[in-house]
Amino acid sequence: MNKKTSRGRVSNASLPKKAHDKYCGFCKSGSDYVDYKNVSFLLTFVNKQGKILPARYTGNCPKHQRKVAKGVKRARELHLVSHESKF
Ligand SMILES: [Zn+2]
After folding, report:
1. Distance 69 CA to ligand 1 centre (A)
2. Ligand 1 center to 83 CA (angstroms)
3. CB-based burial of residue 80 (10 Å sphere; 0-12 exposed, 13-18 middle, 19+ buried)?
4. What is the pTM of this model?
């Protein structure tokens, strides 16, 4: 039985869980440092157009998403990561 919340939406507490939940890789591994010189690592947080992927895709928590964004921007400043697409 689904209980209705105060907003009238159906609570999903009794629904089956998603196949895999997103998690922040930094929190899980315990590392807190984003190396702006590690280009191959930073490119995992950048799409083909050179844009920083939002946290809803990467699964990062807000704290680590800010660190990733700062790292990518530093790498762009040093021309390690391109500002735009390569096409
Ligand atoms: Zn985190």
Report:
1. 13
2. 25
3. middle
4. 0.71
Q: What is the mean pLDDT of each run of 10 residues along the chain (87 residues)?
A: 61 60 88 91 92 93 96 94 74
* Domains of the chain, each with CATH number or no CATH: 22-77 (4.10.640.10)
Report the separation in Å between the CA atom of 7 and the middle of ligand 1, taken as the mean of its atom positions: 30
**Distance, CA 42 to ligand 1 centroid (Å)?**
15
pLDDT at res. 56? 92
- Give 64 Cα–ligand 1 centroid separation in angstroms: 5
What is the whole-number distance in angstroms between the Cα of residue 55 and the centre of ligand 1? 10
pLDDT of residue 6: 64
The C-alpha angle with vertex 52 and arms to 41 and 40, in degrees rounded to 5, equals: 15
Query: What is the helix, strand, coil percentage profile of the chain, to 5?
Result: 35, 5, 60
